[in-house]
Amino acid sequence: MLRLITLSLTAALLSSAAVAQSADSSENGRFTMSQIGGDMLRLDTRTGQVSQCSRGMAGWTCMAVPDERVALEKEIGRLQTDLLAMRRRLTELEAAKKETAQKPDDLKLPTDAELDRVMTFMEKVWKRLIDMVQGTPIEKKS
Questions:
Q1: How many structural domains does the chain have?
Q2: What are the record keywords, sorted (predicted)?
Q3: 100-115, pLDDT tens digit by residue?
Q4: DSSP alpha helices (H): ranges in 28-67?
Q5: 8 A C-beta contact, residue 109 and residue 118
Q6: How far apart are CA 74 and CA 88, in angstroms?
Q7: Does the residue 136 lie in any domain?
Q8: Which range marks the domain in which residue 57 is found?
Q9: Looking at residues 17-30, what average pLDDT do you find?
């Protein structure tokens, strides 16, 4: 019985060591380092996150480098929203244009009496203008 317990514990320890070793081997190669001046750039190959590592008084410290991709994705999202709003507005304007084009024009033409009144007025204005150019005194009607 004691022997069975010992064997099972040994098997458990060996399997956990194998799992730990496989986890360590999968971590190998996750980060790549590049030297930039006196600092190092660390790239996480799984997430794409870049960190700048530098040696300080307390040892090495790594600070995440701001990711321009996030800012670019936000700007792309904003532009897509604006584009969608503009397309909706364009569709509304085109529909309104079609609607007004289908309606008959409410153009009201002047009647013959109104045209006669305008023509009479224009004749008087023209006659006064000619009289002014010729220097003829203008007759005032009361």
A1: 2
A2: Coiled coil, Signal
A3: 776 666 678 899 999 9
A4: none
A5: no
A6: 21
A7: no
A8: 29-65
A9: 51
